Amino acid sequence: MVFFRSKLRLAIASSTPYFQRGFSTSRIVSKSAIVTGAGQGIGKAIALRLARDGFDICVNDLEANSTKVNSVVAEVQSLGRKAVAAYADISKLPQVEAMVNASVDGLGPLDVIVANAGITKVQWGMDVQESDLQRLFEVNFYGVLYSDQVAAKQFIRQGSGGKIINAASLVAFRPLLMIPIYSATKAAVRSLTQSLAMELAKHKITVNAYAPGVVDTPMWEQGDEEMSAINGLPKGQNFKDTVSLITLGRTSVPEDVAKMVSFLASADSDYVTGQTMLVDGGMAFS
Ligand code: NAD
């Protein structure tokens, strides 16, 4: 823990207005949220959206992404909120514990965790190796479980309730070709979200997930390249071809997803739990 705390970079904005949070009207406090995998893509958009909503943000990612994390921290600060960078590989429980401690040390009581970090790998089911299974489940499932567990323990210690928001995917409802194990990890996240919602309700903790469709992020850039290597389509074509499956006729941007997470992090979703909310432009049923 000492090791990780020593790496914690505190970046605290000078003026921080206070306002009430959703769960209590009896005390005036600032709200805080941890967003994992927030150095780029959907996680970055969520961090910035929640900062606009009034949250102080713990920005998590792998240390290898520190330049991007620093820039997200600076953007959160420029929005007038506090920001803490906490490097952790969320597939390792002790690192997740250090991340939550770092957030509480830097930002105070925790209100929301967004377990967003995830990885993908394009491959045929027949070619899957044990190492693929292991890493995809370690990050996409164990990482979400560890984030949820450690945050929930913090919420229970605080006696405050809280909101847990997990990254699932359209493929938790409808798998897509060439990502069989990734799809299975996301179906597992959807199931876990329901189980933890039942288990944690008595502590006034809600547990929900978001299920993006096709979002223009570095993850899709990598996926598109890996698909091209398998099916020979030109770079970018696999991404473009998904449009024919999307009812609204366009792929999405990270901000489309951040809007849903903003709702799930707000008091407006207090009576919503165990749900995996599709943000897919109408792809799951098309
Ligand atoms: P991305 O690859 O662009 O960003 C993911 C971030 O997570 C990266 O900054 C990466 O460094 C970080 N990360 C990876 N492993 C980590 C670990 N072990 N510990 C901490 N951080 C780690 O991905 P994205 O497209 O922004 O996706 C974000 C989430 O949304 C993922 O869970 C993904 O599965 C899910 N999702 C994405 C799409 C899409 O179309 N892009 C669709 C559905 C679901």
From TrEMBL:
Gene Ontology annotations of biological process type: fatty acid biosynthetic process
Any one GO molecular-function label of the UniProt entry: oxidoreductase activity, acting on the CH-OH group of donors, NAD or NADP as acceptor
This protein's UniProt keywords: NADP
Pfam families xrefs: adh_short
KW Cell cycle (keyword) present: no
Coiled coil: none
InterPro entries: NAD(P)-bd_dom_sf, Sc_DH/Rdtase_CS, SDR_fam
Gene3D superfamilies: NAD(P)-binding Rossmann-like Domain (3.40.50.720)
Top-level taxonomic group: Eukaryota
Keyword NADP: yes
UniProt record similarity statement: Belongs to the short-chain dehydrogenases/reductases (SDR) family.
Name of the protein this chain belongs to: 3-oxoacyl-reductase
Organism this protein belongs to: Rhodocollybia butyracea
